[in-house]
What does this fold into?
Amino acid sequence: MKMYVNSVDKHRKLILDAFDYIWKHPETGYKEWGTHKYLKEIFVSLGYEVIEAGNIPGFYAEADTGREGPTIAVFAELDGLIIPSHPDADKETGAVHACGHCTQTAALVGLAAALKEEGLLDKLSGKVRLVIVPAEEGIELDFRRELMEKGIIKYKSGKVEFLRRGLLDGVDLSFMIHADVDKPHSGSMNGGSNGLIAKSVCFLGVSAHAGGLPHKGINALYAANTALNAINALRETFEDSKHIRVHPIISCGDTSVNAIPDKVKLETYVRAADMDAAVSANAKINRAIAASAAAIGAKVHISDIPGSWPRWNDRTMMPVFKEAMEEVLTSIDVDPGRWNAGCSDMGDMASLMPTIQAYVGGACGKEHGIDYYICDPETACVDSAKVQLVAIAKFLENDAKNAKEAIASYKPYFKDKAEYFAYIDRIKKEYDAVIYEENGNVTLNVGF
It folds into this structure.
């Protein structure tokens, strides 16, 4: 495997230059046009035909061995987060790569360059699809709802939108590497991670003078606070083994101190280890929100958006990927029993094909925190590219033996993407959750 490792080393400067540029130019989901342009120019200069997503950022390019075999997709994500207090956040947008996605795209640049090295594909069979995707982080829900209303996107997450657009048709298995807060030249894999439903909630009250006429107003902020307390009271009803997480924020509530707030918005995720558990918990939360609004006399509009499917790392792929990590890294921790309560739209891929999301060190600080940095780009970017190239070789060598074994043993959650979309489309709901009738009756319309 030394040939594959060495072929990445040749492009070390290109990798680190890409990392530096992307870190300094963060953009959030479905807005990553500058990063898209920068990466597209690199891929074209390397000799790739770039297939663009169209009216959203992102593209893919393929390396073809010229021999029949499966297609393996390698993903990298474009988007950052919004953390205005991070020292390196964009001064205008507050965007910053405190998620480490900049390391993924930099590593994929190195992987793309290495795959063009003469003779590198000679012993492999099948194709490698290098996929640059937008919008993994489930933030700015109102903006994404606007894109949905305009017909630009149908789904919140970039990989799901790529799947809908046919950009992943023909892919047989997939993987990606995420940066981890860990020591140099280290890597890890766990059993998987949660899925989620994303929620946007708008409480509507009646504004009035807070001192002179409070009895004429309906306080939307009180309705929101009551809902937060009601959601908290539900937590002990969530089954521990399902890893359910709910973490609402008030995303909009500005008003003057002498006026009763008439509009307050909440955003939250409902995360769980399986989607049926997320749907069940979400129904309880909708009931709590509606009842809280009714208690204050407010109206409330709920928007439920399918987020990420729970991700299960493929057990047949894991040993092969571990071997690839051992070729490059000095410290490896693989624990199929360990669960991550975070979420990723790699889970949506895992519901349809054998999939791995692994981790390579190089970051420091707290993920999604103001102290998060890539303190070791050599590990996070260069080592990552090496592991990915070695993994490709191990899956596609010997007539793609390991890839074919993973495909043959895989038991998909859905038989095809049509069945997958039918399920997640049932999650998507938008409705007024309290109905005030003329006779004084109040009906909770909680969508279940």
